């Protein structure tokens, strides 16, 4: 350690015994008071120097000079002590600034952590919302919107269909009933003669007996469409099937079976049977899934 450093350290150690040394506010107050005192004594020095020069009495002149020298000595001492307080003020201010910087960094780190947690929560919420939407889409009732009804009816009306439509829905299935009503409203908007929905149940052959080991088969799902064999009915059945598929609903033309066997007994007629809702998304939700799968194909 060099000589100036040793001297500075000794002076700082000595300065520690000065009053109000460890408080920043006290140090600043003491520094200001000492500076003010030094100015006052320098002013008194000037005053007594002037008095000594204008005094004609030699004794008073000497007295004024001595008092002026004392004022000068006090002013210099005040400046020396004030200088030490000034150094102490700089040191304590630096400590406060460093402490504030450290606290600011810690606050920034905590804020960053909070923001990261908030982002994770948002991500989880978005994921949960997406899953909820998927669950709702997988269980939502089939439905034709007003716009879909209007657009489909316009296209069907332009084809000038001449067949009648008989509508069936699965017995006791409220969802199938509501969707059948949507289809009836759409067909009637297209000026197609359509009977109100009728219900039918599972067909069990008369006299059939069952044993405990018989295989089980669930209810058929989706929309089954059949028609009489005339051109107009076949064309209308194909058009209805296509429109429903384009809207995201499982619709399929089948051979005459079950209640649709009536098609072989009446005139030009299309029979639409709304069965149980298929598993998974239907309608617009199904179209979204299809678009997503086409945009992000699974690698082979």
Molecular structure report:
The structure is a single chain. The protein is α/β, with parallel strands linked by helices and about 300 residues long. It folds into 2 domains: about 5-135, no CATH class; about 145-200 and about 220-295, Alpha-Beta Plaits (2-Layer Sandwich), CATH 3.30.70. Helix content is about 60%, strand content about 10%. The chain has 7 helices and 5 strands. The chain has helices spanning about 5-15, 25-55, 60-140, 145-160, 175-190, 230-245, 285-295, and strands at about 165-170, 200, 225, 250-255, 270-275. It has a 5-stranded mixed sheet with strand order 2-1-5-3-4, covered by helices on one side. Strand 1 (about 165-170), helix 5 (about 175-190) and strand 2 (about 200) form a beta-alpha-beta unit. The longest helix has about 80 residues, at about 60-140. The two termini are about 75 Å apart.
Q: Helix count, per DSSP?
A: 7
Q: Count every beta strand, where a strand is a DSSP E run of 2 or more residues.
A: 5
Numbering strands along the chain, what is their spatial order in the largest sheet? 2-1-5-3-4
Average pLDDT metric: 81
Question: How are the elements arranged and paired?
Answer:
Blueprint: H1 3-15, H2 24-54, H3 58-139, H4 146-158, E1 164-170, H5 174-189, E2 198-200, E3 223-227, H6 231-246, E4 251-253, E5 269-274, H7 284-295
Parallel strand pairs: 1-2, 1-5, 3-4
Antiparallel strand pairs: 3-5
Helix pairs in contact: 2-3, 4-5
